[in-house]
Amino acid sequence: MAVVVHNAAHLSMLNSARELQDQRVQVAARIYESNHRLVISAKINDPNLPAPLKAAAAKGLRATYIKKVSGEPIVWAEMPLPNNKVISLYDRSPDLAQVLSDLDGVLIAGSVAVVLAGAALSVIVGGQLSRRLRKAAVAARAVAGGEPDVRVRDAVGRRVRDETDELARAVDEMADALQKRLEAERRVTADIAHELRTPVTGLVTAAELLPPGRPSELVRDRAQALRTLVEDVLEVARLDGAEERAELQEVALPEFVRRRVRGLAPEATVEVVRDAWVQTDPRRLERILGNLLANAVRHGKGPVEVVVDGAVLRVRDHGPGFPEVLLREGPSRFRTGSSDRAGQGHGLGLTIATGQARVLGATLAFRNADDDNGGAIAELRLPEARRDASEEPL
Q1: CA dihedral sign of residues 184, 187, 193, 199
Q2: Averaged over 370-386, what is the pLDDT?
């Protein structure tokens, strides 16, 4: 825009200077024809007349011409007279150059101001949009992490009709639809498991009444496995419902682990690196520990080691390790991973352990040992109670 204004102003000033010189040469010509006097610095047959003007005069044309000397415009004008005479005059226009210089300065200053103002406005608008997008991303991650009450539109703040608001609305609608679908699937799973519980219980009871023998043992074993599966499915459904609440109390973790390991997996060893009291639900913690030990015994190899390091509980075996899909995506129901760790089972043990840890406010992580012995390591981090570890457990 500044270049357009500069060129337009330059052209307009030059045209004005040409018209002025043309009027002046006409006035000088009339005065010369009336009394043969030269005025307004006019000359007759000026030898310095520029060649374009000489050519125009030879054709009988009145013309103007602009010649620049050291960057300063000189405006010429000529008019043919009788008897092969040509009257001409010229005038230097320093004011024209000064006006253009001043105009260029104003245009440059204005352009810089507009650019700076535009850049500042862009930074403000872009920063606001970026902040809204970051808030939307944090809220979306919270929804993906299992927080159904989080809404992206509430997280981004005030309602602004822009792309961020449309994105937030779309994400919220998608989250609501997925939540409804997951809730429907959870209810179906829970209803099926609940309906199966009664006949399975009757089947287990009937199997106990069978006469001794190998066939009866097989029936009782399969009936008990089916009962365990139904109970596990019901537990997973309850944990997915996000309605479970822990009954927290202070527990001395080393003593708790020693007692439970003796009953759950007597062949496992317990090592206490550092004592700690934790704030937890003993029943749920026992369920987590039992599932981790069962997974290590069933899918790994001995020895199974349990380490208590403060509020951190580790269960390690020396088998082939966790499959890559579990390390990458976490436990999933009815997915037991690779064949080397999935000879039996339904993939519900670690899923239940993860759900129970979430209810306790703990974190359960899975990794493979990086030393020569190999093996899988499950690490449970519990909330530590603010209590002197030297006190005796209740």
Answers
A1: negative
A2: 84
Give SS3 for 352: helix
Pairwise CA distance, residues 370 & 31, whole Å: 110
Q: What totals of helices (H) and strands (E) does the chain contain, helices first? A: 10, 11
Produce one character per residue of 248-265: b if its CB has 16 or more CB atoms within 10 Å, e if not.
beebbbbebbeebbeebb
171: helix, coil or strand? helix
What does the alpha-carbon distance between residue 77 and residue 56 come to, in Å, rounded to a whole number?
Answer: 11
Residues paired with residue 316 on neighbouring β-strands, in sequence order: 305, 377
Between 97 and 264, residue with greater pLDDT: 264
The overall pTM is greater than 0.70? no
| Extended strands (E) in 188-300 | 249-252, 269-274, 277-280
Consecutive H or E run containing 247: none
Of 282, 313, 311, the closest CA to residue 296 belongs to 313
**Per-residue confidence (pLDDT) for residue 102, from 0 to 100:** 76
Strand order, beta sheet including 376-381: 269-274, 305-309, 312-316, 376-381, 363-368
Show Cβ contacts of residue 371 under 8 Å, excluding neighbours closer than 6 positions: none
- Over residues 73-80, the mean pLDDT reads 90
